[in-house]
Amino acid sequence: MADDVRRIESEIISTFASTAGFLGYSEVHGKILAALLISQEPISLEVLARKTQYSVSMISLSLDLLEVLGAIKKMKKPGDRKLYVQLKGDFIKLIKAALLVKLQKGLDEATSLLQGYEGEIERIENGDKGKLFKSLKVLEMELGRMNEYMNKLSEVPIPQ
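User: That's the sequence. What structure does it adopt?
Assistant: Structure tokens below.
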């Protein structure tokens, strides 16, 4: 019976990790977040390692990034030398913030690349120059629209 519970919990955590991957988290980060979400209370690194099926050292490294992102909080309990971890804040807000950061980074990188091409196109001396500038402006306009859409998306309230 206990083996069935562990197996089902492991499958749930793995499924959630796959979903988290679509949102920009690695599998290990997704498994950590799922295990913490399920537990609803602080859990030790050792328990987290067992639940996610990763080593304590891998969990420890991955927690550093999640802590920087503000997704988790590390703590010690009085009289206990173990390190404990728990989710920090509303989970959907964390996912929304990570998704928006990833989208913004992608848009910023694309915008920067396109701006770099302007100088290259300027140096072209044949008749394709006008066509390239037109293509560049179309792409820049679409990136602007995506940026505007992302800004509106960031304002969508999270359901309670």
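The chain has two domains: 2-87, 94-154.
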